[in-house]
Amino acid sequence: DTGVSQNPRHKITKRGQNVTFRCDPISEHNRLYWYRQTLGQGPEFLTYFQNEAQLEKSRLLSDRFSAERPKGSFSTLEIQRTEQGDSAMYLCASSLDRGRIYFGPGTRLTVL
Amino acid sequence: DAKTTQPPSMDCAEGRAANLPCNHSTISGNEYVYWYRQIHSQGPQYIIHGLKNNETNEMASLIITEDRKSSTLILPHATLRDTAVYYCIVRPEGGSQGNLIFGKGTKLSVKP
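^ inputs. structure came back:
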């Protein structure tokens, strides 16, 4: 069990640029989740996949955000035309069906 | 919105038991109580969960009141490494919703 991994761990970008984050879930896990966490707040749910199907999206996931899980394994989260308000920790998590949810270490995004 | 209420912060002396309370007065019959913790700059870590009965594992004990409207997480011998934000979450079993809804949690400071 290598755990959930996320890359990169840190990303600094300029406002208006596009960024993409990758998440590799625990190998046999069919569900994959994305959360966002700002300073002093708990993680906020963004979206989740069951295999390759995106089953739920939060209203926090604006049109500039897109998530994919093309083969039901790894996932990417892209943010287009980044804004300073996008600065946050982006957390990925995975689970086997409705079992225990395991989180990755997160990607910290700073938008200048 | 989170369905739980927790104190924003607590202190505990090293080696003593840490008792973290959580109110979930609107919990439904099919909802479990989950506890996660988040050490600074890391992803949330699963601690324990339960439905009705008290639960114990290698990390902690979970005491759920008979009416299930509140619970207490007990760390029996707190160490400095237990300093973290602790989140109490209610999560429904069954149905399509699978994600966790976090509140602000309790910031536990273990002091020497």
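Chain B touches chain A through 22 residues (CB under 8 Å). Residues 85 and 107 of chain B are 4 Å apart (CA to CA).
thumbs up if we can close this ticket
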